[in-house]
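Hey Z.,

So I finally got round to the zinc ion thing we talked about over coffee. Here's the setup:
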Amino acid sequence: MKNFPKYPLYWRKNDFSIKIFCSIPNIATGILLKAGQSYFIIDPGDGILRDLNKEVGIKSLLEISDVFISHGHHDHVGGVWSLLTYWRVMNKKTPLSIYFPKGCVEIKSIYNAFNKVYSKTIGYKINLEELTHTNSFKRKSVLIKPFPVIHKEFLRDGIKTRNIPSFGYTFTYRRKKICYGGDTAYCNSLVVNAKGSDLAIIEAGHDENTPSEMHMTLSEAKIIGETAKEYFLVHVPE
Ligand SMILES: [Zn+2]
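And the result:
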């Protein structure tokens, strides 16, 4: 197989849509969800500001209220500093919430550094929503359900690994459900949450046909994707 997804990937049902600008492992992810007139950002990797500026323009960009982070790897959070700083420079007024799994030190560290540098000149409120539970909650008529997935990173020796806090999310709006799995090995929580969803966004980040503890193979990802009404396979190594 070398069937790379061709970005951007776009899916829409009525006024509920999602655009995946990019999802390339170790490079960048960038996803925009739109429900009615509300925009949510998911996993803002490097390049997200450029893509959002082109897609929604300055006015809508300044009104974005919610950012969802699956985990702290650079290809999922590399654009957070740019966004926070852009909003400061462009004089964002409305509050911002950033949701991330408990223990995701990257988001806290980026926020702390940003706050340290610009504390006296930030004109908008930032709520760090460290998710310590997986209960559903509502934002702008969208029901959000975080769920834990299994993801790891290598230690310095490049052989040993450790688990990292990592979530997938489902987003439900007007009875349509999108399941975004984030980065994960094959796991039951993803199987359960992807099943029956209107769109499942499933990573296939492991490029061999032997199962991995970190990412899914293409065949594992397809098995899960096919339980949804439609699916995208993303995060395929290029
Ligand atoms: Zn990752």
